[in-house]
Amino acid sequence: MIKKFFVTLITCSIFLVSCNNDDDSSTNKETRIPIEERNALDDEAITQFLNDFYFNPTTGRLTKFDTITGNDDDAYPALKTIAKQDDLGIWYAENPNHIGTGESIVSNDSTSIYLSYVASYFVATNSTDYTRKYGSIGTYGNSVNTGDGSALQDPNFYYFIPTATEIKNGVKRENLELKNFVEGLKHFKTTDRAITGLYNFQGVIILPSRLAFARNKYYTGSSLSDSYTYRDASFIFNFELPKIEKRTTE
């Protein structure tokens, strides 16, 4: 009996140590820092990102400055020189080489959109593994590499209506839809180009994590998770809005 007790005790101890090691990973630590620290870290990372990137003059795609003085990209304006931050805290910038002059959206419930985009995200970090606070930038979505590359209608971060089954399982619109992306998009007008044309991105919208999913549950498509990849993640949407239309209700 005593032997069995000690074996059980050792097993439990190993399990607890393992759990503590998992909790101490840098990713887990940084998604548990106080909200005030998270917000300040996001702001610093976004400032660095705005300094480091510019609009490619041909495609409008966000491109990082190289480190070689005298190269062609030295002549291009950094995002920091043209970006604005609205009253909600959303960062946005228009590509000076491709500014839309058409219509603006009213809301995602009343306006259907066609969007060409490359969406990225990062979790701002203090890790010494990186030279910049935005650390490693991952891909969230990319219409350019989807199907024939045409603009997509109503991507789910713009407009998401849960099914009856999903609603029963507790899924809400905000578990996948980014309302502040919708607000950011109101700063732009359509380019009125063909939705099947080669993309030419007109702008960028940047959401700090507090304006994205923050620490709320994220819908993976099969379940809700509050410890998913996008916890504390800031988002970057490089895009073109070629067309919008009034949403029809059935």
What are its keywords?
two-stranded antiparallel ribbon, alpha+beta, 5 helices, 250 residues, 21% strand, globular
Please count the beta strands (DSSP E, at least 2 residues each): 11
Structural class based on helices, strands and sheet pairing: alpha+beta
Give Rg in angstroms: 21 Å
Measured as a percent range, the helix fraction is 10-25%
Mean pLDDT: 89
Largest sheet: 7 strands, antiparallel
Low-confidence stretches: 1-27
Shape: globular
User: What fraction of the residues are assigned to beta strands by DSSP?
Assistant: 15-25%
Euclidean distance between termini CA atoms: 69 Å
Order of helices and strands: HHHEEEEEEEHHEEEE
Q: Helix segment count? A: 5
What does this protein look like?
This protein is 23% helix and 21% strand. With 250 residues, the chain is an alpha+beta fold. Strands 3, 4, 5, 6, 7, 8 and 11 form a 7-stranded antiparallel β-sheet that branches.
Concise summary:
With 250 residues, the protein is an alpha+beta fold. It has five helices and eleven strands. Strands 3, 4, 5, 6, 7, 8 and 11 form a seven-stranded antiparallel sheet that branches.
